[in-house]
Design a protein that fits this description.
Elements lengths: L4 E5 L4 H12 L3 E6 L2 H13 L3 E6 L5 H15 L4 E4 L14 H29 L2 E6 L12 H20 L5 E8 L13 H14 L4 H11 L9 E4 L7
Parallel strand pairs: 1-2, 1-4, 2-3, 4-5, 5-6, 6-7
Helix pairs in contact: 1-7, 3-4, 4-5
Length: about 240
Amino acid sequence: MKNKVIVITGASSGLGEAAARLLSEEGAIVILGARRADRIQSLAQEIISKGGQALAIETDVTNADQVKHLVDEAVNTFGRVDVIINNAGLMPQSSLDRLKIKEWDQMIDVNIKGVLYGIAAVLPYMQAQKSGHIINVSSVAGHKVRAGGVVYSATKHAVRVISEGLRQEVKPYNIRTTIISPGAVDTELPQSVVEPDFAANIQKFYQDVAIPADSFARIVAFAINQPEDVDINEVLYRPTKQEY
Protein backbone atom coordinates (compact mmCIF):
# COMPACT_ATOMS: atom_id res chain seq x y z
CA MET A 1 0.00 0.00 0.00
CA LYS A 2 2.88 2.37 0.77
CA ASN A 3 3.02 5.20 -1.79
CA LYS A 4 0.49 3.59 -4.13
CA VAL A 5 -1.34 6.30 -6.08
CA ILE A 6 -5.06 5.57 -5.71
CA VAL A 7 -7.85 7.44 -7.49
CA ILE A 8 -11.28 7.26 -5.82
CA THR A 9 -14.52 8.48 -7.37
CA GLY A 10 -17.51 9.25 -5.18
CA ALA A 11 -15.02 10.20 -2.48
CA SER A 12 -17.11 12.87 -0.77
CA SER A 13 -19.02 10.47 1.48
CA GLY A 14 -19.80 6.88 2.32
CA LEU A 15 -17.71 4.10 0.81
CA GLY A 16 -15.31 6.41 -1.02
CA GLU A 17 -14.66 8.59 1.99
CA ALA A 18 -14.08 5.57 4.25
CA ALA A 19 -11.71 4.02 1.73
CA ALA A 20 -9.75 7.26 1.38
CA ARG A 21 -9.23 7.49 5.13
CA LEU A 22 -8.14 3.89 5.64
CA LEU A 23 -5.90 3.69 2.56
CA SER A 24 -4.15 6.94 3.43
CA GLU A 25 -3.57 5.65 6.97
CA GLU A 26 -1.86 2.64 5.39
CA GLY A 27 0.45 4.89 3.39
CA ALA A 28 -1.35 5.35 0.08
CA ILE A 29 -1.54 8.61 -1.85
CA VAL A 30 -5.23 9.29 -2.49
CA ILE A 31 -6.74 11.37 -5.28
CA LEU A 32 -10.30 12.27 -4.41
CA GLY A 33 -12.93 12.84 -7.08
CA ALA A 34 -16.54 13.95 -6.47
CA ARG A 35 -18.99 16.67 -7.43
CA ARG A 36 -19.08 18.15 -3.93
CA ALA A 37 -15.77 20.00 -4.02
CA ASP A 38 -16.07 21.38 -0.50
CA ARG A 39 -16.34 17.90 1.00
CA ILE A 40 -13.38 16.39 -0.81
CA GLN A 41 -11.26 19.49 -0.13
CA SER A 42 -12.05 19.13 3.57
CA LEU A 43 -11.23 15.41 3.49
CA ALA A 44 -7.95 16.06 1.66
CA GLN A 45 -6.96 18.65 4.26
CA GLU A 46 -7.82 16.22 7.07
CA ILE A 47 -5.61 13.54 5.51
CA ILE A 48 -2.74 15.97 4.91
CA SER A 49 -2.99 17.26 8.49
CA LYS A 50 -2.40 13.70 9.67
CA GLY A 51 0.73 13.36 7.58
CA GLY A 52 -0.82 11.75 4.52
CA GLN A 53 -0.85 12.79 0.87
CA ALA A 54 -4.09 13.68 -0.85
CA LEU A 55 -5.36 15.68 -3.81
CA ALA A 56 -9.00 16.74 -4.30
CA ILE A 57 -10.38 17.38 -7.79
CA GLU A 58 -14.02 18.24 -8.46
CA THR A 59 -15.29 15.53 -10.81
CA ASP A 60 -18.62 14.55 -12.32
CA VAL A 61 -18.26 10.93 -13.43
CA THR A 62 -20.92 11.39 -16.12
CA ASN A 63 -18.43 13.62 -17.95
CA ALA A 64 -15.66 11.58 -19.58
CA ASP A 65 -13.36 14.62 -19.90
CA GLN A 66 -13.63 15.34 -16.17
CA VAL A 67 -12.81 11.75 -15.25
CA LYS A 68 -9.82 11.83 -17.61
CA HIS A 69 -8.70 15.09 -16.00
CA LEU A 70 -8.93 13.48 -12.55
CA VAL A 71 -6.61 10.65 -13.59
CA ASP A 72 -4.31 12.89 -15.63
CA GLU A 73 -3.80 15.14 -12.60
CA ALA A 74 -2.94 12.12 -10.48
CA VAL A 75 -0.26 11.11 -12.98
CA ASN A 76 1.00 14.66 -13.51
CA THR A 77 1.35 15.20 -9.77
CA PHE A 78 2.57 11.81 -8.57
CA GLY A 79 4.02 10.20 -11.69
CA ARG A 80 1.72 7.21 -12.02
CA VAL A 81 -1.66 5.70 -11.15
CA ASP A 82 -1.69 2.35 -9.37
CA VAL A 83 -5.36 1.87 -8.47
CA ILE A 84 -8.71 3.34 -9.40
CA ILE A 85 -11.81 2.71 -7.30
CA ASN A 86 -14.86 3.36 -9.48
CA ASN A 87 -17.23 3.93 -6.60
CA ALA A 88 -19.64 6.74 -7.54
CA GLY A 89 -23.22 5.46 -7.67
CA LEU A 90 -26.93 6.19 -7.26
CA MET A 91 -29.78 3.96 -6.12
CA PRO A 92 -33.22 5.46 -6.86
CA GLN A 93 -35.95 2.85 -6.30
CA SER A 94 -39.40 2.65 -7.85
CA SER A 95 -41.54 0.25 -9.84
CA LEU A 96 -41.18 0.48 -13.61
CA ASP A 97 -44.78 1.58 -14.06
CA ARG A 98 -43.99 4.88 -12.35
CA LEU A 99 -41.96 5.73 -15.45
CA LYS A 100 -39.08 7.49 -13.68
CA ILE A 101 -37.19 7.81 -16.93
CA LYS A 102 -34.91 10.61 -15.73
CA GLU A 103 -33.88 8.45 -12.78
CA TRP A 104 -33.18 5.54 -15.14
CA ASP A 105 -31.02 7.77 -17.32
CA GLN A 106 -29.16 9.12 -14.31
CA MET A 107 -28.39 5.64 -12.96
CA ILE A 108 -27.14 4.50 -16.36
CA ASP A 109 -24.98 7.62 -16.68
CA VAL A 110 -23.43 7.36 -13.19
CA ASN A 111 -23.41 3.63 -12.44
CA ILE A 112 -22.43 2.32 -15.89
CA LYS A 113 -20.91 5.14 -17.92
CA GLY A 114 -19.06 6.47 -14.88
CA VAL A 115 -17.33 3.10 -14.48
CA LEU A 116 -16.49 2.92 -18.18
CA TYR A 117 -15.08 6.46 -18.11
CA GLY A 118 -12.90 5.54 -15.13
CA ILE A 119 -11.59 2.50 -16.97
CA ALA A 120 -10.94 4.56 -20.10
CA ALA A 121 -9.01 7.15 -18.11
CA VAL A 122 -6.60 4.73 -16.39
CA LEU A 123 -6.18 2.00 -18.98
CA PRO A 124 -3.59 3.69 -21.22
CA TYR A 125 -1.40 4.51 -18.20
CA MET A 126 -1.72 1.03 -16.70
CA GLN A 127 -1.01 -0.65 -20.01
CA ALA A 128 2.14 1.43 -20.39
CA GLN A 129 3.22 0.68 -16.80
CA LYS A 130 2.39 -3.03 -17.20
CA SER A 131 0.73 -2.81 -13.79
CA GLY A 132 -2.36 -1.48 -12.07
CA HIS A 133 -5.55 -2.40 -10.27
CA ILE A 134 -9.09 -1.45 -11.29
CA ILE A 135 -11.71 -1.83 -8.54
CA ASN A 136 -15.35 -1.48 -9.60
CA VAL A 137 -18.19 -1.24 -7.09
CA SER A 138 -21.23 -3.36 -7.86
CA SER A 139 -23.78 -4.46 -5.23
CA VAL A 140 -25.73 -7.41 -3.91
CA ALA A 141 -28.27 -6.00 -6.38
CA GLY A 142 -25.80 -6.97 -9.09
CA HIS A 143 -26.45 -10.60 -8.12
CA LYS A 144 -30.14 -10.45 -7.22
CA VAL A 145 -33.03 -8.40 -8.51
CA ARG A 146 -36.04 -7.33 -6.46
CA ALA A 147 -39.21 -5.49 -7.41
CA GLY A 148 -38.63 -1.74 -7.27
CA GLY A 149 -34.93 -2.04 -7.95
CA VAL A 150 -34.97 -3.27 -11.54
CA VAL A 151 -32.93 -0.54 -13.22
CA TYR A 152 -30.50 -0.25 -10.32
CA SER A 153 -29.92 -4.00 -10.45
CA ALA A 154 -29.47 -3.81 -14.21
CA THR A 155 -26.73 -1.20 -13.80
CA LYS A 156 -24.97 -3.23 -11.13
CA HIS A 157 -25.19 -6.41 -13.21
CA ALA A 158 -23.61 -4.37 -16.00
CA VAL A 159 -20.71 -3.40 -13.73
CA ARG A 160 -20.00 -7.08 -13.12
CA VAL A 161 -20.18 -7.90 -16.84
CA ILE A 162 -17.87 -5.02 -17.72
CA SER A 163 -15.43 -6.01 -14.98
CA GLU A 164 -15.25 -9.66 -16.03
CA GLY A 165 -14.69 -8.74 -19.67
CA LEU A 166 -12.03 -6.26 -18.60
CA ARG A 167 -10.33 -8.92 -16.47
CA GLN A 168 -9.89 -11.12 -19.51
CA GLU A 169 -8.67 -8.31 -21.76
CA VAL A 170 -5.98 -6.92 -19.45
CA LYS A 171 -4.10 -10.17 -18.73
CA PRO A 172 -1.21 -9.21 -21.08
CA TYR A 173 -0.63 -6.02 -19.08
CA ASN A 174 -0.40 -7.48 -15.56
CA ILE A 175 -3.46 -5.45 -14.48
CA ARG A 176 -5.65 -6.75 -11.67
CA THR A 177 -9.43 -6.26 -11.47
CA THR A 178 -11.77 -6.51 -8.51
CA ILE A 179 -15.55 -6.27 -8.18
CA ILE A 180 -16.83 -5.40 -4.73
CA SER A 181 -20.54 -6.07 -4.17
CA PRO A 182 -21.72 -4.72 -0.80
CA GLY A 183 -25.03 -5.33 0.87
CA ALA A 184 -26.58 -2.72 3.15
CA VAL A 185 -23.85 -0.32 4.25
CA ASP A 186 -24.47 2.88 6.20
CA THR A 187 -23.95 5.59 3.56
CA GLU A 188 -25.93 8.37 1.89
CA LEU A 189 -26.97 6.01 -0.93
CA PRO A 190 -30.52 5.45 0.38
CA GLN A 191 -31.06 9.22 0.21
CA SER A 192 -31.18 8.92 -3.58
CA VAL A 193 -34.52 7.10 -3.18
CA VAL A 194 -37.16 9.82 -3.48
CA GLU A 195 -40.44 7.92 -4.00
CA PRO A 196 -41.99 8.19 -0.50
CA ASP A 197 -43.17 4.58 -0.09
CA PHE A 198 -39.96 3.05 -1.44
CA ALA A 199 -37.86 5.52 0.55
CA ALA A 200 -39.61 4.57 3.79
CA ASN A 201 -38.98 0.86 3.19
CA ILE A 202 -35.33 1.38 2.29
CA GLN A 203 -34.69 3.66 5.25
CA LYS A 204 -36.19 1.14 7.67
CA PHE A 205 -34.21 -1.72 6.12
CA TYR A 206 -30.94 0.20 6.42
CA GLN A 207 -31.70 1.28 9.97
CA ASP A 208 -32.27 -2.36 10.90
CA VAL A 209 -29.27 -4.04 9.27
CA ALA A 210 -26.72 -1.62 7.77
CA ILE A 211 -23.07 -1.90 8.80
CA PRO A 212 -20.43 0.88 8.80
CA ALA A 213 -18.67 2.01 5.62
CA ASP A 214 -15.28 1.00 6.96
CA SER A 215 -16.34 -2.59 6.17
CA PHE A 216 -15.91 -1.66 2.52
CA ALA A 217 -12.61 0.08 3.14
CA ARG A 218 -11.15 -3.02 4.77
CA ILE A 219 -12.13 -5.17 1.80
CA VAL A 220 -10.54 -2.69 -0.61
CA ALA A 221 -7.34 -2.77 1.43
CA PHE A 222 -7.42 -6.58 1.47
CA ALA A 223 -7.65 -6.76 -2.32
CA ILE A 224 -4.92 -4.16 -2.89
CA ASN A 225 -2.56 -5.66 -0.32
CA GLN A 226 -2.39 -9.08 -1.96
CA PRO A 227 0.89 -10.04 -3.67
CA GLU A 228 1.10 -8.89 -7.29
CA ASP A 229 0.47 -12.43 -8.55
CA VAL A 230 -2.84 -12.68 -6.64
CA ASP A 231 -5.92 -11.18 -8.29
CA ILE A 232 -9.01 -10.95 -6.05
CA ASN A 233 -11.67 -10.82 -8.74
CA GLU A 234 -14.86 -10.44 -6.71
CA VAL A 235 -16.02 -9.97 -3.14
CA LEU A 236 -19.72 -10.20 -2.26
CA TYR A 237 -20.52 -9.31 1.33
CA ARG A 238 -23.53 -8.43 3.46
CA PRO A 239 -24.32 -7.49 7.03
CA THR A 240 -24.67 -10.68 9.05
CA LYS A 241 -28.31 -9.70 9.68
CA GLN A 242 -29.16 -9.20 5.99
CA GLU A 243 -31.38 -11.97 4.65
CA TYR A 244 -31.36 -11.26 0.89
